[in-house]
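2024-03-11 09:14:02 INFO queue: dequeued item Prephenate dehydratase, len=317
2024-03-11 09:14:02 INFO validating residues
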Amino acid sequence: MTDAAPTPPEETYSYLGPAGTFTEAALKQVAAASGKHWRGVNNVGEALADVTSGRSTAAMIAIENSVDGGVSATQDALATVPGLRILGEYLVPVNFVLVARPGTALADVRVVNAHPVAYAQSRGWLERELPNHGHIPATSNVSAAASLFEGSQADAAVAPPGITDHLDVDVLARDIGDNPNAVTRFVLVSRSRELPEPTGADKTSLIVELPDDEPGALLAMLEQFSTRGVNLSLIQSRPIGDALGRYRFVVDVDGHIADERVADALLGLRRTSPNVIFLGSYPRADEQTVAYHSKYDDGIFIEARDWLRGLLSGEPD
Ligand SMILES: O=C(O)C(=O)Cc1ccccc1
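2024-03-11 09:14:37 INFO prediction written
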């Protein structure tokens, strides 16, 4: 008699919950997550801890939005939690409604529950229409509304338009976001070492530290990319936190680590930076093919390497 094979743990995906958040909408775009177990969590740290502990296969987290910039909690977590890789990016258009318990009028609203990132994106409307309001931070856009029924001192909440599918709330105002075209970028993060295949429309995410007190160190870092024809789509500084004036750079570059020009730039960074964290190469959400000059084609780098190898091994010219 043979032993039955152990049942593998159910594949789980963590996301900022509860159901109805924009983060859930991003996870719905992931074909591999369909039909799997989804675990709603309270913050980015909890989502990433699920991944590092092996409790979850992957986690969906917000990393950047078009109004308020980079999500610092996410950028800092990716810089400090070891072993994480980004498998893909997903874009979700975001707009917001102001909701309240049934029967509340806009004129009654004194205090508003809102996720800090949603609050930052609705600040113009809130300051104009509710100039004296107070703000209570919430863990997510849906929990902002849910807590109105759980003893919150707030009278209203900033929430996603789909909130009425989940909760019995009155919508006091629609489209309260300061930018009607706001988009949030999410990333799916895992511990997997498997690199997504290059598609020609890829992005590589890195975190780079600079040598201390070296004039021109930032320029030298940027030159690693410019001399290989590699375009940057994001560069943002975040304080390292141990002393004033020490920063790390969150960098997104066009291209895949399997592209020779990107690989060569990474070698240059590794030589010149005290710490380079490779967060992953993955397909761009906008599917835009990466454009670059033909002098940075893979074949040009390969030929140069072969030429050097030939010289070293004494091959005839
Ligand atoms: O996913 C959500 O709904 C969140 O609460 C986080 C968030 C906040 C603002 C814009 C996008 C995501």
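2024-03-11 09:14:37 INFO annotate: The chain has a mean pLDDT of 95.
2024-03-11 09:14:38 INFO item closed
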